[in-house]
Design a protein that fits this description.
It holds the Pfam family MazE_antitoxin. This protein is an alpha+beta fold. It contains three helices and four strands. The protein has one domain.
Length: 75
């Protein structure tokens, strides 16, 4: 776990990412990052993945079509 401090940047608030976090996210200055809600209630900071929306659309379609099967497998 990495502790980040919220700081004021002009009229906004932000956090500064340490070098090791930038390296693990494989990101750079000006690159987009996305804050997504995690199922357990927290948040995740993830780098941009241009194929993510396509993958999620396919996954949602599969989950919708095989809902009963997935429910049985989850037991």
């Amino acid at each position: 776990m990495v502790e980040l401090k919220v700081r004021k940047f002009g009229n906004s608030l932000g956090v500064v990412l340490p070098k090791e976090v930038i390296s693990r996210l494989n990101t750079q200055d000006g690159a987009p990052l996305y804050l997504t809600e995690a199922p357990e209630g927290g948040y995740r900071l993830v780098p941009y993945d241009p194929d993510f929306e396509t993958k999620m659309t396919k996954a949602e379609d599969i989950m919708r079509r095989y809902r009963d099967t997935l429910h049985v497998l989850a037991q």
